[in-house]
Each structure stands twice: as C-alpha cells, then as structure tokens.
Amino acid sequence: MVRAMEKYIRPGVKLTPFCPGCGHGILMGSILRAIDELKMDMKKMLFVSGIGCAAWIPSPHFNGDTLHTLHGRALAFATGAKLYNPDLCVMVVSGDGDLSSIGGNHLIHAARRNIDLKVICANNMIYGMTGGQVASTTPKGAKTSTTGEGNPYRPFDLCKLVEAAGASYVAKYSVTQPVSLINSIKKALLHVGFSFIEVLSPCPTQFGRRNRADRPDEMIQDLIRQCILKGEAERLTEEELEGKIITGEFLECPK
Amino acid sequence: MPSRWVKTTFPTGIHYLSGNEAAAEGAIAAGCRFYAGYPITPSSELMERMAVRLREVGGVFMQMEDEIASISSVIGASWAGAKAMTATSGPGFSLMQESIGYAAFTETPCVIIDVQRAGPCTGQATRVGSGDIMQAKWGSHGDYQIIALSPWSAQEMYDLTLRAFNLSEQFRVPALVMADEAVGHLRENMLTTAKVEVWDRKKEKGGSPFGTEEEDLVPPMPFFGEGERLLVTGSTHDAYGFRKTDDPEAHAKLVERINEKILRNRKTIVETENYFLEDSEIVVIAYGFTARTSLYAVKRLRKEGMKIGLLRLKTLWPFPEEAVREAGGEVKKVVVPEMNRQQVAGEVRKACQCDVIPVNQTNGEVIHPETIIEVLRKIG
C-alpha cells in the first residue's frame, strides 16, 4: 500500500492473509481510497464483518473501530451499533456466502428497513476460506468441492434481491473497475440509507483452480472482458450480451 | 468497583405487576436503553412493555427478524455503549447460544431473560418448565462462564433484572435471568424505590480491552466512536484484540481468564437464602417458582415438628457450591424439587456428596406443595 494510505492501516499489521491473485486486496485499497478522498473521520467509522476471506478486509487491517462477528450476523451486529449510536458511519464488509447465504435473512431485513449501513459484498462466487464449497452465488454448472458434477442450482442475483428487499443504493462492480468502484463506494458513504455494492473479486485458489482458470491473471482478464457498464449494455443486442456481466449503479434513491 | 445511585423513572411505591412487566421496569431502572427482541410465548409481554417504556425514556427498541438477530444487535449496541437486553423462551434461547458464546468470549456485557416454558422443542408454549438450567451454562460450545439468576416473584423479576445488569457491567459477561412462565405471568404486589444502585463498565483510555493484570481479571471496555480503534473479534485474541489463532499460550491464557474472572469473584456474585437451616436434618434445595411451593411445604412440616429447612438458590451459575456444601454437609437427606429431570440435583450431588433425593415434575405445571410434602413425609 502506498505511503499516503499507511495511516489507514492499523499499526502492527504487516501483511494481508489473502492468496496471491485474490481480488480482495484491490477492494481493500478501493475502500480506503474512497474514505481518504472524502476525508472521512476514521474516529466515527465502524467496520463490521462476518466470517470468511472478505471479512478479513477490515479486521485487523483498518485503523479504526472494527467488529469481527459471527458467520452471517454482521448486519445484525451493525444494526444494533448504528441504531444505538447513529453518529457512527457503519460499513459492513463481508463475503457473498456470509451476507446472502447464512446471512440472507439479515440481509433482506436490513435492506427492508433501509437502515443507514454501507454494505460491501465481496463476491467470489465460492466459500473460499473453508476450501471451495458451493455458494449461493456460484454459477450454475460450476465445479466446487461439494459440486463435483457441476452446481445444479442457479445463483442469486444479489443486486435484484437487495433492491426488491428495499435498499436505496444498489451497485455492482468488479475489482477490475477500480475507478468506478471507488466512486461508488464514495457515493455509498455519503448516501443516507441502505447501500449495497456487490464487488466481483476473483478467487483463483478455490474457484479458478476448479473452473478453467488456473492462473490469477486469466481470471482478471476474464473479468475485464466480461464486465461492461450499464450504459454500454443498453446499446448491445441480446446476442452481444451473451456472457457479459452488467455493472454499474442500478438504484439510487433518496432515503 | 465504584457504583452510583440513580433516580428511577417509574413512580415509587407498590405496584401490581406481572413478573414480565416488573422485569422490564427493572431493566429500565438499571439503565437499559437498548432492547432488541423477537416475540415468543411466554416472554412477549416483556418486549411489548420495553417497546413503550424505551420510547418514553429515549432509548432504542427494535423488533428484529429472529432471535439470532436480536441477541446479535444487543451485542453490537453494547459495544456502541448501551446497556442492552433481550428476552426469550426455550426455543429462542437455543437459537441465541452461538451469540451468547460470542458475548462471553469477547466479554460483552448484556442481559438475556429466559422465561422458560415446557420443553424440549416447541413443547407446551403456554406452560411452565425449568428445563433450560444446564443450557444456560453449557448451551454454547467451549468452556466459558455466564451468570444466571433465579427470580421467584414479580419483585425479584425487578430486583434480579437490575442485578443482572449490574453484574454484567461489573464482570463484562452475559448475565441471564432464568425466569419461567409461572413467575413471568404471575401478578402480585412489588415495590419500587426512588433510587437504585448501578454499576458501569470500567473505563480506561488507551487501556487493553481484552487483557488485564488487575486482581478481578476484568479489563476496561471502551466503546465505538471514542477513538480507541477497537479490534473486537470472536477468534482467540490477545489483550488488544489481535487474532492469535495459532498461539497455544494465547488461547490457554484467554480461556483461563474468562473462566477465572467469574469463578474467582463468586463471593460477590452468588446469592442464596436460608430458612431454618440451623437445626435441619432434611434440607430442601430449590430455586425459582418451585422455591415458593417448597417454602410452604417446609413451613407446614416445621409446624408438625419436622426438622426441615430450605436453601433457596437465587444464583444458579456460577453454582453456589459453598452454600450447598454447607447446607448438605451435616444433614441426612437433601431434597431437590425441580421442573426438569435433575438438572440442578446433579450439581448438588457434585457439590456436597450428600444423599440427594430429586423430586422431578415435567408435566408443564408448577410443583404443588402437597407433592413436596408427600416426599418429605416419606423420608422424615
């Protein structure tokens, strides 16, 4: 991390635990850059996370109040803290399994209540930390450690799910779109209401290794090729959209 | 640890309240300003009263989507500085166990009231039981301590809920009030005072929130937003909250301290009440609503000349070993009536190696004094 950003890293922390090729490091940097560009007061920030690789983004790395909770429960813990002390700027950073599988119920209710929480969902489409089991976001047909014949079920469309539940800011980006991602995080930080940003983040160790992409740079190149912005997508035919991932801000309403 | 006296917001004097309502007032008196809960018979009235009262005193009330969300948001609020509480019954208590372990391991003050009903499982939702006593101590995985108090009246629903908050703050530990449907729904007179004594968690700017050299083994507790850059985690951690998931010494140290913290302070925590123990040959050991009918039985048989006494356990965890050992030491027999299958009788046996006769009833009803009298007469 560049010198200027060091002040956001907790003293004593030297390394991240992420695998080589993991996208979470880029996401971590994007979050801190968004905070820096807005000159947020770190004393008022609270970072809440669950269990999983993405949950290790804020804890212990961020130099502020961090609350590392139980699997799936980050949003419930965050709700308690925010409601009791509304002056806190509460950001939840966790993974797709933590937030939408075991945590699915808390996700839809927090969105329904439109509580002022900034939720960053790092989506690597797998349960990475525990060795690569299938997740609620794993593409149909993908190989995982528990779906050797290919995942028989379709994944959640997280943004649609959260929008339908009641969120007031919904966006989706990939770690290969850092500028847009940083801007979106800034929007979420300033938005008053439930913000949800799905961030596609490659997991070469668990997902990639089992599904075609042995090398981290292959997964990055895949994402670069597949991700297109909303505006761009509107100009393409259905055929041309085949295999593409539409990213952008899907919903932005005042509270 | 220093305490302070605060004015209560509830009118002083005698009130005719149900146990559930009294418990809500005790919480408000203690300074509880965050409640998150989920409806479950027979505890729902407590939550409903908190919904009204917290609005009146400027606190935060949330009905959450389930019990897990309830206890989790209570813990989040506690770290944001709140005295926070939830109430439930057996099935909800089961759901909360993982989070209770989290609160114990991270030393988060919080109060959980279990208005026990007839179990296991859905059981008889509107009927009484005392089947959650062992679960209170061992419900979550691993070795940890909690404090569990056992009220026997509407008055004690108030007093012991207040006490639970105070103990929770003093020792940074989840404090449970093991009530039951009988005491929760019973309406009787209880007295509130103009002022109550409250304890608050230790504070020390820059102090280590998860380790201490102090004798009482209780570290100071900052809250979010104070600039302390808290590192709260459920993983094994050092004094500053850094994860130590590969360090045998760190794990041994933390597990030992969170257990010793409570066990070493048992004299402050444990409360019992004696009736006629000085010359008793048979001692009844009882708790909660069952202690009421036990006391009636003991008094009746005393009038008939039986040398019989009662040891009432007001604290269930940490278990009152010393009081039980003392009461059971000299006597011929110890009788333990309870609305479960020997959950406390087993602990009594461990503590005093006396001849323990259980009186177990798991039919969803309170134990009638006649049932206890019959057993006592047979022994006597």
Alpha-carbon distance between the two ends of chain A: 35 Å
- Tell me the number of strands of chain B: 18
Biggest interface pair, counts: A-B, 32 and 42 residues
Largest sheet of chain B: 8 strands, mixed
Low-pLDDT regions of chain B: none
Indicate the CATH topology of the largest domain in chain B: Rossmann fold
At the fourth CATH level, what is the homologous superfamily of the largest domain in chain B? Thiamin diphosphate (ThDP)-binding fold, Pyr/PP domains
User: Whole-number average pLDDT of chain A?
Assistant: 96
Helical residue percent band of chain B: 25-40%
Task: Please tell me how large the radius of gyration of chain A is.
Answer: 17 Å
Give the CATH level 1 class of the largest domain in chain B.
Answer: Alpha Beta
Overall average pLDDT of chain B: 97
What attributes does this structure have?
A: 255 residues, alpha/beta, Rossmann fold, eight-stranded mixed sheet, 35% helix, B: 380 residues, 13 helices, 18 strands, 24% strand
